[in-house]
Batch of 2 targets.
Target 1
Amino acid sequence: MDTTGMVHCDTAVGTPDYISPEVLKSQGGDGYYGRECDWWSVGVFIFEMLVGDTPFYADSLVGTYSKIMDHKNSLNFPDDVEISKDAKNIICAFLTDREVRLGRNGVDEIMRHPFFKNDQWTFDTIRDTVAPVVPELSSDIDTSNFDEIEDDKGDVESFPTPKAFVGNQLPFRRLHVLQRGSVTKRFQQHLGGS
């Protein structure tokens, strides 16, 4: 991160469903983004907690990335899930262009959003408030409050192995070339020579 709070990166890094458009654009070498990319992810997980799916889910990675890049048209709220006006507003405020994204001016603007207004707590008293649900745990590693996850991962997308020659495919290490056509004595011995 530079002195202006920006990161320069030529590779898109992040979990596919949560990655912001500006981070996706970094894949082509235009990677210059700031902390606001994390607020995009907050919008995704608020949506996921309320709806049960990520907002830009698709059956393929390319489909997910296409929806993220076209977020203005692809962000939709399902009719069968009741979501408050304030919840929709904060999600839309996070899942928008970085220049106008909620949080770009700091966390205080997020804390002032109507989504967080309630009668039970404030950000100053939240640590003193009793949680509405306190799970019963039998041990530190008790996972009984989580759904079982099937081991079958199905078809996993992967990048194809390059078919062209790549130098690191050679079985030799520490090859020292002294001059054109000449190799070190150690390498000659490895080949069975003197």
Target 2
Amino acid sequence: MQELKEARDRTRDRLISELEKPHIKALLENIEAHASRNRPLRKQEGELAKIRLLKHITKTVPFYRNWPQSVQIEPLQLEKFPILERSTLASNLGVLISRDQITGEILASDLYLSSTSGSTGHPVTHIKSSESNGFAELVFWQRLQAAFAIPKTNEWLDLGLRVFGQPLVQGRVLPSATIAWNMRTYRRERPEFMQEYESILRAAEPDVIWGTPSRVHELAKVVDELGILVRPNVVLTSYEPLTDSLRELLLSQFKCPVASVYGTSELGLCAWQCSKGAFHFDEDLFVLEVVDEQGEVVNDGDCGRIVITSLHSTCVPLVRYDTGDLGAARRDICECGREDPRLVRIEGRRLAMVITREGVEFSPYRLIDYIGSMGVHDFQIQQTYPGSLRIALGKQERPLTSDRKSQFIALASSFLGESTHVEFSHEHPFVLANSGKKNPFVRITDGAEKF
């Protein structure tokens, strides 16, 4: 444990030294200036950024340059541009890159690749630019840190989707001096993993806990078992849905705000939950739309396809990008007091719907919430055949009582049909995405198993 503390202290000293460099100071001042804009300025800058982006893509992106002239009549209107599907991004990446009209050279430098987990059915490799995407992400993080009073020099327990080869202790200088403990999954059958996990918990002084809900739940159980006091400023979850019951459990364990952060691999992180549970979008960074199957914007509160425009994605512009998620938005004043556009409900993936025997599709989120309300947090709803569900339970979850099972089956049957088959199992493993993400509902499409 002493070695870990010394590694943490060395990392902190290096970060503090980095912060004194003139170019870092100048960049931090620029980030702070953008992050501290008030709402009227954000709205005004958002409108200007939208016009700049639309002019940019009609001049430099072949995909839009060749689009019908009716779209390009000024003043340019976002809603006239086509919705960009993931499949289109995957198959047309070459003509979606901003290029010089004469030389054909890419109009960006310092490029990097970003890949999705494939949980939507369409894995995508996307190109980003540190100059545009990176700066917008830093502004987002600066605002998030201010919202939860995270200190300028901070520590994170990172329980996200760990990338192979990441060091155990890692420093980040922007947008603040951050020491991240990149924690592996707690595996009770591997003593060396358990020892490392416990050593980090005893050495770290986290201001933030960050990760998937399933892994943060795992952390909460371990902390409780070991009797280690962990008191961060905030618990932030992403990648997987956070149920209300798990939020309450984490709130009880860590005694701090618990919020979910919404984003995608292509867009980056876009919004975090306010105290009323809504995901607010900063208007100088993103344009949020919810549309129907024909691409028309739906009324406030109605469910539809979540479509987002990233106002700073200039290398491969993401204009009216279909995230693959379903949800509902509102634009009136939130109960929390914020006035920016917000998602008030996320129903889940369009390609992750429960299918009845008759072929009718339903969102699984009512079922997910109900299982969570029963005090079950480590689970996955699996469908291998229309009209049949398997509730895979984590090894540490207690078996459900007959009454609990009957209540769940009654709920499932109420909107999936009386012929719905449900089984509960501790034996079947969870199905994970390539990134390690555990989605709460999956369709297993190999068809090999029929209940």
